[in-house]
Amino acid sequence: MTRRWWLILGAGWSWGVASAQPASVTLKNIRHDFQALNNCAPVTAMTLLGYYGASVTQAQAAAVMKDYPGDPQVTSLELASYLGRAGLQSVIRYAGDAELLRSLVAAGFPVVLQQRLQRGSNVAHFRTVYGYSAGQFLISDPLLGPSLRLSAQRLAELWAYYNGEYLVAFPPARAGEVQRLLGSDYSAAANWQHLRAHGEQDIKARPRDPYAWWGLAKATLRLGNAALASDYFERAVNLGVPTMYYLYRQEAFEAWTQAGRHSRTLSVTQRALQAFPRSKELQYFRTLAGRAVGQSGG
């Protein structure tokens, strides 16, 4: 039996336990479709629902999930909400690793990753892992095809852009299996502690990596320290987070709003909205900041 250990700061040691895994696994009934523009989330929904026996087309999913035709952003939460309408339960967690992916796939659960599209790209992209063999993973990619193979090293490199975010969808009757496989990470609070510990290690190893700072900042925010999280987000921004990143992730604006740094939100959202003027998330945080500044007389 193999064990996956991690340190949960302030709470001692915790672990997830997985049975010995087969050397290779390929899940069956994985549907694929090549995505229309910005449609990786609808295709991912089609793939997951098809695996669990429901039929939906890319176009049908897009009509529900997107705010308008061509909307470039569907969040993991929106994907989970759509899957929930079809009766699937989802967990979204961070600081995932290759061993966890193998454990989930071996148990019959395809895993959705939020990753960088490719090296050097700033585009975020959903991919579904449904198999593995020695040193590599088998992936259904809405853009690159139904049988993309990535080495564990390349997968981790692309995954760091989103701090190891993953989504597992499953029928509610199988929740106990997912809880056993995730161990402590099944708890959202414990997973934020895991991400914080992971982030602290990452910034020591890569102190000029803006995405490592962002992950640490997000965990710190979710654990209740908005002031410190604001400082960490500032570090990430100053190290060079690309404008497109704000289309996908708005946690910095959450932290700055809670910490009263409204002028910072106004400055960054102004730049981001020039590139993505229809983003409802960016509009929301800019409106909040504008109201706060107006009320304070600033």
TrEMBL record:
Domain of life per record: Bacteria
Pfam families assigned: Peptidase_C39_2 (PF13529)
Domain Peptidase C39-like: start-end pairs: 36-142
Entry keywords, A to Z: Signal
Entry annotated with the keyword Signal: yes
SUPFAM superfamilies according to UniProt: TPR-like (SSF48452)
Keyword 4Fe-4S: no
Signal peptide (residue range): 1-20
Name by which UniProt lists this protein: Peptidase C39-like domain-containing protein
Top-level taxonomy: Bacteria, Thermotogati, Deinococcota, Deinococci, Deinococcales
